[in-house]
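dumping this here before i forget
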Amino acid sequence: MEMKDFAVPGITVIFAAGVSFASFESSAQEVEELNDRLIAIESNVGKQEVVDVKIEGIEKRLDKMEDIVQKMLDIQQRQAVNIAQICQATNANCSSGN
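structure:
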C-alpha cells in the first residue's frame, strides 16, 4: 500500500473530526448563550414577582386607608347631625357664616 492510500482516508478522518469539534464547540457556545438568556429571564421573572408582591401590599394598605376615610366621614356626618340638633334645641346660631 502506498502512502496516499493512508493519507486520503486519514485526511478525511482529520477533516471530519475538525468539523465535528467545530460543531460541538458551536453547540456548546449556543448552550452557553441560551443559559445566559435563561438566567436573565429568570432574574426578570423574580423581579416581577417582587414588584407584584409590593403592589399587592400597596393595594391592601390603600384598602385600609379607604376604610379609615369612610369611617371618618361617617363620624363627621354623625357629628354634623348632633351639632344641628343641639343648635336647634338651644336656639343657637350655629351657621358657619358671620
